[in-house]
Protein backbone atom coordinates (compact mmCIF):
# COMPACT_ATOMS: atom_id res chain seq x y z
CA UNK A 1 0.00 0.00 0.00
CA UNK A 2 2.82 2.36 0.92
CA UNK A 3 4.58 1.57 -2.36
CA UNK A 4 1.52 2.47 -4.43
CA UNK A 5 1.02 5.71 -2.45
CA UNK A 6 4.65 6.70 -2.95
CA UNK A 7 4.37 6.07 -6.70
CA UNK A 8 1.21 8.17 -6.82
CA UNK A 9 2.93 11.11 -5.13
CA UNK A 10 5.92 10.84 -7.48
CA UNK A 11 3.59 10.88 -10.49
CA UNK A 12 2.00 14.07 -9.22
CA UNK A 13 5.30 15.97 -8.94
CA UNK A 14 6.97 14.47 -12.03
CA UNK A 15 6.86 16.76 -15.09
CA UNK A 16 4.58 15.51 -17.87
CA UNK A 17 6.99 16.45 -20.65
CA UNK A 18 10.73 15.92 -20.83
CA UNK A 19 12.98 17.28 -23.56
CA UNK A 20 16.22 15.49 -24.34
CA UNK A 21 18.40 15.16 -27.41
CA UNK A 22 16.18 17.56 -29.31
CA UNK A 23 13.10 15.34 -28.78
CA UNK A 24 10.09 15.74 -26.48
CA UNK A 25 8.87 12.77 -24.45
CA UNK A 26 5.87 12.19 -22.23
CA UNK A 27 6.47 10.73 -18.77
CA UNK A 28 2.96 9.34 -18.63
CA UNK A 29 1.07 6.85 -20.71
CA UNK A 30 -1.56 8.63 -22.80
CA UNK A 31 -4.68 7.02 -24.26
CA UNK A 32 -6.71 8.69 -26.96
CA UNK A 33 -10.39 8.83 -25.99
CA UNK A 34 -12.06 9.79 -29.30
CA UNK A 35 -10.51 6.96 -31.32
CA UNK A 36 -12.79 5.00 -33.69
CA UNK A 37 -13.46 1.52 -32.41
CA UNK A 38 -13.30 -1.61 -34.53
CA UNK A 39 -16.57 -3.10 -35.73
CA UNK A 40 -17.54 -6.74 -35.91
CA UNK A 41 -17.67 -7.61 -39.60
CA UNK A 42 -20.79 -9.28 -40.95
CA UNK A 43 -19.99 -12.74 -42.30
CA UNK A 44 -21.93 -13.83 -45.40
CA UNK A 45 -21.59 -16.90 -47.59
CA UNK A 46 -22.58 -15.45 -50.96
CA UNK A 47 -21.80 -12.55 -53.26
CA UNK A 48 -25.49 -11.65 -53.43
CA UNK A 49 -25.52 -11.09 -49.66
CA UNK A 50 -22.53 -8.77 -49.99
CA UNK A 51 -24.21 -6.84 -52.80
CA UNK A 52 -27.42 -6.48 -50.78
CA UNK A 53 -25.48 -4.98 -47.88
CA UNK A 54 -23.65 -2.46 -50.07
CA UNK A 55 -26.85 -1.37 -51.81
CA UNK A 56 -28.69 -0.92 -48.50
CA UNK A 57 -26.43 1.89 -47.16
CA UNK A 58 -27.43 0.45 -43.81
CA UNK A 59 -24.44 1.60 -41.73
CA UNK A 60 -23.32 4.74 -43.55
CA UNK A 61 -23.22 6.44 -46.94
CA UNK A 62 -19.44 6.76 -47.15
CA UNK A 63 -17.71 5.20 -50.19
CA UNK A 64 -16.48 1.64 -49.66
CA UNK A 65 -13.82 -0.51 -51.25
CA UNK A 66 -14.52 -4.13 -52.25
CA UNK A 67 -11.41 -6.30 -52.28
CA UNK A 68 -11.54 -9.64 -54.10
CA UNK A 69 -8.92 -11.27 -51.90
CA UNK A 70 -9.11 -14.78 -53.41
CA UNK A 71 -11.55 -17.05 -55.27
CA UNK A 72 -13.27 -17.72 -51.94
CA UNK A 73 -12.91 -14.44 -49.99
CA UNK A 74 -14.25 -10.91 -50.64
CA UNK A 75 -14.12 -8.04 -48.13
CA UNK A 76 -15.86 -4.66 -47.87
CA UNK A 77 -14.09 -1.85 -45.98
CA UNK A 78 -14.04 1.93 -45.80
CA UNK A 79 -11.27 4.48 -46.40
CA UNK A 80 -8.41 5.29 -44.03
CA UNK A 81 -9.32 7.45 -41.06
CA UNK A 82 -7.16 10.11 -39.40
CA UNK A 83 -4.96 7.48 -37.74
CA UNK A 84 -4.43 5.54 -40.97
CA UNK A 85 -6.77 2.70 -40.02
CA UNK A 86 -9.80 1.27 -41.79
CA UNK A 87 -12.78 -0.80 -40.74
CA UNK A 88 -14.03 -3.96 -42.43
CA UNK A 89 -17.82 -4.23 -42.58
CA UNK A 90 -18.49 -7.43 -44.53
CA UNK A 91 -16.50 -10.61 -45.12
CA UNK A 92 -17.87 -12.97 -47.78
CA UNK A 93 -16.59 -16.55 -47.75
CA UNK A 94 -17.73 -19.02 -50.42
CA UNK A 95 -19.63 -22.10 -49.28
CA UNK A 96 -17.88 -24.94 -51.14
CA UNK A 97 -18.10 -28.74 -51.29
CA UNK A 98 -15.17 -30.92 -50.25
CA UNK A 99 -13.18 -31.98 -53.31
CA UNK A 100 -10.16 -34.28 -53.11
CA UNK A 101 -7.22 -33.33 -55.31
CA UNK A 102 -3.60 -34.52 -55.37
CA UNK A 103 -4.38 -37.96 -53.91
CA UNK A 104 -6.02 -41.23 -54.89
CA UNK A 105 -9.54 -42.18 -53.76
CA UNK A 106 -11.67 -45.25 -54.39
CA UNK A 107 -13.65 -45.38 -57.61
CA UNK A 108 -17.12 -45.00 -56.07
CA UNK A 109 -16.13 -41.91 -54.07
CA UNK A 110 -14.48 -40.45 -57.16
CA UNK A 111 -17.60 -40.94 -59.31
CA UNK A 112 -19.85 -39.33 -56.68
CA UNK A 113 -17.42 -36.43 -56.35
CA UNK A 114 -17.40 -35.83 -60.12
CA UNK A 115 -21.16 -35.83 -60.38
CA UNK A 116 -21.84 -33.76 -57.26
CA UNK A 117 -18.97 -31.26 -57.21
CA UNK A 118 -18.16 -30.57 -60.88
CA UNK A 119 -20.05 -28.58 -63.51
CA UNK A 120 -21.17 -30.90 -66.37
CA UNK A 121 -19.00 -30.72 -69.50
CA UNK A 122 -17.71 -33.09 -72.17
CA UNK A 123 -14.61 -34.24 -70.30
CA UNK A 124 -16.53 -34.88 -67.09
CA UNK A 125 -18.86 -37.24 -68.96
CA UNK A 126 -15.88 -38.99 -70.58
CA UNK A 127 -14.09 -39.48 -67.26
CA UNK A 128 -17.21 -40.77 -65.51
CA UNK A 129 -17.85 -43.27 -68.30
CA UNK A 130 -14.24 -44.42 -68.32
CA UNK A 131 -13.89 -44.82 -64.55
CA UNK A 132 -17.17 -46.72 -64.31
CA UNK A 133 -15.89 -49.29 -66.86
CA UNK A 134 -12.77 -50.34 -64.94
CA UNK A 135 -12.59 -54.10 -64.24
CA UNK A 136 -12.36 -54.76 -60.51
CA UNK A 137 -10.30 -57.93 -60.19
CA UNK A 138 -6.72 -58.93 -59.38
CA UNK A 139 -5.76 -59.08 -63.05
CA UNK A 140 -6.19 -55.37 -63.73
CA UNK A 141 -3.07 -54.00 -65.39
CA UNK A 142 -1.83 -50.57 -66.33
CA UNK A 143 0.79 -49.36 -68.80
CA UNK A 144 2.37 -46.06 -67.93
CA UNK A 145 5.01 -44.14 -69.91
CA UNK A 146 4.85 -41.03 -67.71
CA UNK A 147 2.72 -39.12 -70.22
CA UNK A 148 -0.24 -41.40 -70.88
CA UNK A 149 -1.73 -44.41 -69.14
CA UNK A 150 -3.61 -47.45 -70.46
CA UNK A 151 -5.90 -49.52 -68.24
CA UNK A 152 -7.92 -52.68 -68.63
CA UNK A 153 -11.58 -51.74 -69.03
CA UNK A 154 -14.87 -53.26 -70.16
CA UNK A 155 -15.82 -52.69 -73.78
CA UNK A 156 -18.95 -54.82 -73.79
CA UNK A 157 -21.08 -57.04 -71.60
CA UNK A 158 -18.38 -59.62 -71.12
CA UNK A 159 -15.42 -58.44 -73.15
CA UNK A 160 -12.38 -56.52 -71.89
CA UNK A 161 -10.08 -54.19 -73.81
CA UNK A 162 -7.44 -51.51 -73.42
CA UNK A 163 -8.54 -47.87 -73.13
CA UNK A 164 -6.14 -44.92 -73.12
CA UNK A 165 -6.83 -42.30 -70.48
CA UNK A 166 -7.40 -38.79 -71.85
CA UNK A 167 -4.78 -36.43 -70.42
CA UNK A 168 -4.99 -33.68 -69.48
CA UNK A 169 -8.73 -33.38 -68.86
CA UNK A 170 -10.53 -30.03 -68.73
CA UNK A 171 -12.92 -29.93 -65.76
CA UNK A 172 -14.93 -27.33 -63.82
CA UNK A 173 -14.96 -28.09 -60.10
CA UNK A 174 -16.94 -25.85 -57.75
CA UNK A 175 -14.08 -23.78 -56.31
CA UNK A 176 -15.53 -20.26 -56.10
CA UNK A 177 -18.83 -18.50 -55.35
CA UNK A 178 -21.90 -20.14 -56.86
CA UNK A 179 -23.07 -16.89 -58.50
CA UNK A 180 -20.14 -16.76 -60.95
CA UNK A 181 -18.99 -19.18 -63.69
CA UNK A 182 -16.70 -21.87 -62.35
CA UNK A 183 -13.34 -21.60 -64.16
CA UNK A 184 -12.32 -24.54 -66.32
CA UNK A 185 -8.80 -25.86 -65.76
CA UNK A 186 -6.70 -28.85 -66.73
CA UNK A 187 -6.06 -31.89 -64.56
CA UNK A 188 -3.95 -35.01 -64.93
CA UNK A 189 -6.09 -38.13 -64.43
CA UNK A 190 -4.30 -41.14 -62.93
CA UNK A 191 -5.36 -44.63 -61.88
CA UNK A 192 -3.85 -47.18 -59.51
CA UNK A 193 -4.39 -50.87 -58.95
CA UNK A 194 -7.52 -51.54 -56.97
CA UNK A 195 -9.53 -49.06 -59.00
CA UNK A 196 -8.22 -45.99 -57.15
CA UNK A 197 -8.41 -42.72 -59.08
CA UNK A 198 -6.72 -39.34 -58.62
CA UNK A 199 -6.93 -35.86 -60.10
CA UNK A 200 -3.84 -33.66 -60.08
CA UNK A 201 -3.95 -29.95 -60.94
CA UNK A 202 -2.02 -29.03 -64.09
CA UNK A 203 -2.73 -25.34 -64.76
CA UNK A 204 -0.26 -23.74 -62.36
CA UNK A 205 -3.01 -21.97 -60.41
CA UNK A 206 -4.24 -19.92 -63.38
CA UNK A 207 -7.82 -20.85 -62.43
CA UNK A 208 -7.55 -18.62 -59.35
CA UNK A 209 -6.95 -15.51 -61.45
CA UNK A 210 -9.86 -16.46 -63.73
CA UNK A 211 -12.15 -17.00 -60.74
CA UNK A 212 -11.21 -13.63 -59.21
CA UNK A 213 -11.84 -11.92 -62.55
CA UNK A 214 -15.28 -13.59 -62.72
CA UNK A 215 -16.08 -12.31 -59.21
CA UNK A 216 -15.00 -8.77 -60.10
CA UNK A 217 -17.13 -8.85 -63.26
CA UNK A 218 -20.17 -10.02 -61.28
CA UNK A 219 -19.73 -7.23 -58.72
CA UNK A 220 -19.17 -4.59 -61.40
CA UNK A 221 -22.44 -5.56 -63.08
CA UNK A 222 -24.42 -5.88 -59.84
CA UNK A 223 -23.13 -2.56 -58.45
CA UNK A 224 -22.86 -0.60 -61.70
CA UNK A 225 -24.89 2.35 -60.40
CA UNK A 226 -22.92 2.57 -57.15
CA UNK A 227 -19.63 2.42 -59.05
CA UNK A 228 -20.80 5.13 -61.46
CA UNK A 229 -21.71 7.36 -58.50
CA UNK A 230 -18.29 6.71 -56.93
CA UNK A 231 -19.79 5.04 -53.89
CA UNK A 232 -18.08 1.71 -54.55
CA UNK A 233 -14.59 0.81 -55.76
CA UNK A 234 -13.49 -2.72 -56.65
CA UNK A 235 -9.99 -4.20 -56.68
CA UNK A 236 -8.83 -7.76 -57.24
Describe this structure in words.
- The chain is an alpha+beta fold and 236 residues long.
- It has 2 domains: 42-96 and 211-235, 2-Layer Sandwich (Signal recognition particle alu RNA binding heterodimer, srp9/1), CATH 3.30.720; 104-203, no CATH class.
- 28% of the residues lie in helices and 28% in strands.
- The protein is built from 6 helices and 14 strands.
- The protein has helices spanning 2-13, 47-56, 107-117, 122-132, 206-222, 224-228, and strands at residues 17-20, 23-26, 42-44, 64-70, 73-77, 88-93, 104-106, 142-144, 149-154, 160-164, 169-171, 185-192, 196-201, 232-235.
- The strands form 4 sheets. A 5-stranded mixed β-sheet has the order 3-6-5-4-14.
- A hairpin with a 3-residue loop joins strand 12 (185-192) and strand 13.
- Helix 3 packs antiparallel against helix 4.
- The longest helix is centred in the C-terminal third of the chain and has 17 residues, at 206-222.
- The protein starts with a helix and ends with a strand.
